Amino acid sequence: MNTDEIEKYIELENQANQLIEKIEKAKNCDAKDLKWWHISNYLENNNKIVLVPLNKNEFSNIIADTYGIYGLTLKDSRMAMICYNNECIETRKHFTIMHEIGHFLLHKNNQTYPSLMQENDYTEEDKIFEKEANMMAGMLLANKKAVQSLLDDRKPFNYLCKYFGISKPALKIRLFNLFYFQTLEQILNEEKEIKDLYAYSHKTINNYIYYNYKLTIN
């Protein structure tokens, strides 16, 4: 982890916040009240995006996959078609839709972005794109302002999951990322020598969240 990754995270967060602010103005509401469907509806109405629910057999008519597929973004110069696996549980569908919207927002070249259940077939470039889309999905599903508001109100972890329509593993990653880069930046600025940066940051973040919000994310 280095300053380049901090800068990338900040760049992604700024893009997510800019979109949230646009939707706030369009719907005349506060970010803490926005849910995943507000985002998808806004982009469908304003950015020539079509959301298409498909089952596994229908996916096989579009792309050949061996392991199964969560979602797919097909882009050209006119529009984007975002397909998602309608046989998955609801929280997985929500994450997939936001993940594919992440591809639409971040990766401007016109090509196909499959979200595979197993990542064996990803190139190194694919892995970078997938990581960015995953981060963006977390930021859109549980936007920073809403997360902070619920934490300030001491809402329990399960409440947050239901509020955002997000799975427990996805929310754990979102909360970790939300505080991780702030902690990392402080470590780098203070030039601390840490053998296991991830473990140190994880412990620091867990302690911080529990101390301030009485919320455990282990």
From TrEMBL:
<protein>
    <recommendedName>
        <fullName>IrrE N-terminal-like domain-containing protein</fullName>
    </recommendedName>
</protein>
<dbReference type="InterPro" id="IPR010359">
    <property type="entry name" value="IrrE_HExxH"/>
</dbReference>
<keyword id="KW-0175">Coiled coil</keyword>
<dbReference type="InterPro" id="IPR052345">
    <property type="entry name" value="Rad_response_metalloprotease"/>
</dbReference>
<dbReference type="Pfam" id="PF06114">
    <property type="entry name" value="Peptidase_M78"/>
</dbReference>
<feature type="domain" description="IrrE N-terminal-like">
    <location>
        <begin position="77"/>
        <end position="175"/>
    </location>
</feature>
<feature type="coiled-coil region">
    <location>
        <begin position="2"/>
        <end position="29"/>
    </location>
</feature>
